[in-house]
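Escalation from tier 1.

The customer reports that the assembly of two entities below gives different structure tokens on two consecutive runs. Tier 1 could not reproduce it. I'm attaching the input and our single run for tier 2 to review.
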Amino acid sequence: MISLPVLLGVLLIGFLLLQVVPTDPATVVAGPTATKAEIDAIRNDLGLNQPLWVQFGRYLGRVLQLDLGRSMISNRAVVDEIALTLWPTVELMLACLVWAVPLGITLGTLAARRRGTAIDRAIMALSVMGVSVPIFWVGLLLIQYVGGAGLLPFQGRNGPIWTADGFMSIILPSITLGAVFVGPVARMTRTSLLETLGADYVRTARAKGASDWRVTIRHALRNAMIPVVTLVGLQIGFLLGGSIVTETMFAWPGVGRMAVGAITSSDFPLAQGAILILAVGFMAINLCVDVLYAYLDPRIARG
Amino acid sequence: MTDAALPLQSQADQRAIAAIRRKNAVWRRILRDPPAAIAALFLILIVGAALLAPWIAPFDPYASNMRMRLCPIGGARCPDFLLGADNQGRDMLSRILFGLRATLGIGIVAVMVGGGLGALIGLSAAYFRRLDQPLMRLVDVLLSFPSILFGLAIAAVMGTGLLSLVVALSIASVPSIARIARGAAQSIMQQEYMEAGRAVGLGDGALIWRYLALNCWPTILIYMTLQLGQAILLGAALSFLGLGAQPPTAELGSMAADGRKFLSIAPQVSTLPCAAIFLVVLAFNVLGDALRDALDPKLRQ
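Tier 1 run:
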């Protein structure tokens, strides 16, 4: 329900972005030899004399028809440009989640089970370091020591992930992106598990003779997963931010790299489209998290 | 009046209460936690070094000397440059000091502006009940939105540079401070002195400023400090992407990006700024965790 105003806000930003374009679209369409009267006529045709809110309405109409304009540099449709970059970004995020979340949950469970021991402290220290490290440093170190030694490629995406080249080239970006993600997941798992381990039903399970690890995994962990899923959902935004930096560093042809490139080269229509798709993607992921949430906690689905 | 003659607390009681208060004072809790104490000390040193950068930096951070280009740490070409030189032959130590100054400065300004705005939103939401729902929905929306996208959008609209960086970081720090301020203010709204203030005829402005704001600011200030680590990290990332501080400005994120091309021959050019960001943010986070524990009565034991 909060997504609708957000979506409108994002669209408004996208619209405003197109308003700051330094060149006048009517002049461009009219060509260099046009007279002032011709330019004015074209301006009327394009609706550029209408009040801004009318223009915003038209913009919304165009966006709904997936018409995001043309890139000022490549002159290709923005939608086509985005379509090319979407999958590499999704691929990178999945390649990160697929190892970082299980590792985070494992470390968090370990820390909660061994609460107060050196293992717990070490895992928590690692987790604080993980949230404090600038993601580009992780990338730079990997490029310097692993990429520089020729062990793994670090420039671009050399094919889809299911090909050998593609798989090799996603390893370093995925480690970079995941490195900052393991910490928060481990931390949240630990906190949440410590709470559930003290719950009545856990004591009941224990009283019925279930083993320690069975209690932890079968009874406590599933309930502890609810805040963790929420966290992963909330952190998707964080992951999106990380992927923008990671893509730029590893020349990964994703949406984030395209957005940064479009902004630094003042390609306003492309920047507008890229920011729009990042925001919409973020909201779509949040929606998925809500659904997953209901699956993990039947109380929510029924309530 | 025998009531007045009866002291509510004996002097011994008062002394005991004062002793407990002192023992539980937030800063004492921090000092009892070694990592937090180290982090606090480190931050004091770093902030001091950043403030004094123009006086303690051994060289001009913008003076380039091509003969010392990419000179490694302890290299014979640059005996006076303790941390080597960058790709323009500038002293790395001086640039780090000035970079810390810029990076911290950007973060502090942004958190103060954004935090101030957030505090205003939070206090208003707590004080004017009717504003609570709309304001807090707005905060939820801001909070759910990835802050780096603010950075991208604002850099796209306003152009890249320090101003858009500060604006983006400010917006990013509004929502969490607004939540904290509202929480703190709501508990104060229930105090009897609020009612007393209203009864003696104080206006909204006076009640908000003298009663609410002055009672909430320690909490708000502490959370603003916590926010600083995140603001610094985000600001450095945006500058690294080329959307914030622009070269030749000595700012840690853009210095790290600058040094990328020389990783294999002179790793210090990008590693040192990265390490500096890491240590500062780590110190803020360690201190932040300790402060949160100290302030959260549930965790006190």
